[in-house]
Amino acid sequence: MIIRRSLQGSGFPGRAWEPVASCVPSQRGREDRQKHKQRDNNGFRRSSNWRCPKSRSPILTESTQNPATITAKSRLIADSCLLATACMWGINILVFKHGIQEVNPWVFNAIRLIFATAALGILVWIESRIRPVPKREFSKLQVFIFAMLTGFLYLLCFVRGVSMTTAGNTALIMSAMPMWTALLSFVFLKERLPGVTWLGLFITFIGTVLVTTQSGGKVSFASEYFVGNLLILTGSLAWASGTIISRPILHAVSPLQLAFWSALITTPMHLLIIAPQIPESWPKVTQWVTMLEIIYSGVFSTGLAYASWHVGVRILGGSHAAVYQNVVTLVAVLGGWLFLHEKPLVAQIIGGILIVFGLIAMRRGRKS
């Protein structure tokens, strides 16, 4: 809300003044603000003379910087998008696991990205017709770095790392991803989290460790798994770094646009890598069950899920969004129980309860 007031005896009687906090100036804006400091001692500026200069980067609103100022409606939208993302990713673990039993993992991954890119392209076109996004300047280099981190390096490290280490090691290392995201947000974005939020992150981490280590996967840090563990860790850091980079970009472009551009940049790279293996794998790829799995993994888990993930990051920030990645493990365990008849253990149930309590603590932390 813009506060207006008339200052008597200030030399500008009857002029409308408004708080400087109503906009967030760029570097140029901050310099101009310093020039007006002497007549701005009361925290107000003349709306007729001093304007927030046009920035090369989009102007951020308070709600996108401080989670405590986000409206309840926006918070509900963000949480719903992130929860939907976690469900799609959790189901995709089961789908991907079944799909690569018949098809080479690299081929499965590359072909699903074709469907993801096509789906995102259609959604971006629909968005441009129904709800056009205002054109704003942004760093194309940042978009490219983001795409390489989350759409290329992360997938390469994950697919290769899974084949070189145990499932238990993979799940355990990936469960620390929200912690990495929170730390990187604190270091590079100065995103300060209240104590209850850190407590929520820690609780979800413990809950995820209980779920993953009791899922039948061997946890071992022997030297034979060192390279695989290092690849999984590198992939986790790549995803966390990409999440941090994406937030300033999302102030200029829509989540659908960012997801589409990332897929458009990286999909040809993945196809180039698996090109020699396509003729051999094509007969298995065209089987209707495998094709349905590829379509789901591409359209929903990679296409729609990436877009809904970016919605949550734009509203809540990387640290608050990242905790939902631990829900993915819980969804995968529940899916295994419902569809694969894998009976959950008591420790896994306790871990799931801890994950839920951690999410509740994170939500309280946003309001504090």
Summarize the structure in words.
With 368 residues, this protein is an all-alpha fold. The protein contains 15 helices and two strands. The protein has helices at 27-35, 62-65, 72-99, 105-130, 140-162, 167-174, 177-188, 195-213, 226-249, 255-274, 278-285, 288-316, 318-322, 325-339, 346-367; strands at 17-19, 44-46. It has a two-stranded antiparallel ribbon. The longest helix has 29 residues, at 288-316. It starts with 16 loop residues before the first strand and ends with a helix. Residues 1-24 and 35-65 have low confidence and may be disordered.
Layout: helices, strands, pairs:
Blueprint: E1 17-19, H1 27-35, E2 44-46, H2 62-65, H3 72-99, H4 105-130, H5 140-162, H6 167-174, H7 177-188, H8 195-213, H9 226-249, H10 255-274, H11 278-285, H12 288-316, H13 318-322, H14 325-339, H15 346-367
Antiparallel strand pairs: 1-2
Briefly say what this structure is.
The protein is mainly α.
Keywords:
mainly alpha, two-stranded antiparallel sheet, single chain, globular, disordered N terminus, about 70% helix, about 375 residues, 15 helices
